Amino acid sequence: MAKSAPHVYLSTLPFAPTCSLISTHCSSMFPRTLRLKSGRLSHWPSSEMVVSHVGGWVTYWVTSVAFSPDGQHIVSGSNDQTIRVWNATTGETVAGPFSGHSNWVTSVAFSPDGQHIISGSDDRTIRVWNATTGETVAGPFSGHSDWVVSVAFSPNGQHISSGSSDRTIRVWNIMTGETVAGPFSGHSNWVVSVAFSPDGQHIASGSYDRTIRVWNATTGETVLSRWSAHRLRIEGSNNSCVERHDGRDSGGPIQRTLGYGQVCGILSRWPAHHLRLGRSNNSCVECHDWRDNGGPN
Known about the structure:
There is one protein chain. The protein has about 300 residues and is mainly β. It is built from 3 helices and 23 strands. It has helices at about 5-10, 20-25, 260-270, and strands at about 55, 60, 60-65, 75-80, 80-85, 95-100, 105-110, 115-120, 125-130, 135-140, 150-155, 160-165, 170-175, 180-185, 190-195, 200-205, 210-215, 220-225, 230-235, 240-245, 255-260, 275-280, 285-290. It has a 5-stranded antiparallel β-sheet with strand order 21-20-19-23-22, with helices on one face. The chain has a 4-stranded antiparallel β-sheet with strand order 3-4-5-6, with no helix packed on it. Strand 4 (about 75-80) and strand 5 form a beta hairpin. It is elongated, with a radius of gyration of 26 Å.
C-alpha cells in the first residue's frame, strides 16, 4: 500500500460500511470524497464468501461440509450425488466432482492426514476417496439397511463410524470395509450424528429420539445413555415468583420467573426431560422426570 497511488484506496472509502474501522477513522479525514446516495452497508457482511454447488442448470442442496485438517480446503456433499473439494480462500473447485454414489451424499469428512475423504449416502453405502484425484480408494461399504446419515473418522484414521436411519451405529475398517464393531443398537429413531472421542475409545451419537448416547467404540457397550444437561430444582414459589437452579451448584438462581404461565413455559422448554410438577406448598415446587419413579430431579 505504501508504494501505490493513494487514490486507489481513497476510491474504496465510500463503499466501506459506515461502522467499519476504516470508515470511522478515515471518512472525516477526506470529506471531499464521493458519497453513496443509497445502498451503503452499516457493517461488513458476516459471510466472507458464498460458494454455489452447481450441477448443469440446477443448483443443488449442499448436505454436508467439512474443513481439511490444515484449513486450506473444504469438502462438500450434495443431493446431486457428488462430492467436491474447494479452495477455502478462493472458492474454486480444486477437485471433483467425485461420482459414484447413486443417491444423495449426506455426510462427508476429511481423514486426519487430509489425504482421504469419506462419504455416507442415502444409497446405504460408505465410500473412501483420494482427496486429490477423486479415485475411490475403498468401498462401497454395505451393511446398513437404510440411509447412511452421518460418518466420522477415528483419530488414528484407521476406522470409520457411521450412523444410519436404520437406528444403528457401525464401525468399519477403512481399507477392508469390514464391520469391526456393531451394529450398536439402542436408539429408537434415526441416528443423525456420530463422532469419535479424541482418544478413539468412545463414539457419541445423536438421534431423532431426542437422546445422546456414548458407546464403547470396540464393544458397543453403552457407556452413557441418558443425558441430563442440568439436574434442576424449581424452588422459591410464593405464587408470584419461581427460581430455576442448577442442582449441581449452590449458587444463586439461573432464572427467576414471575407468574404461573411463565413457570409452565420454563418446564415445557426442556426437551431433555419430560417434566411434571410434583408438589407445591407455596414455598417449594419439585420437578420430576416422568420416565422414572424416583424422587424429584
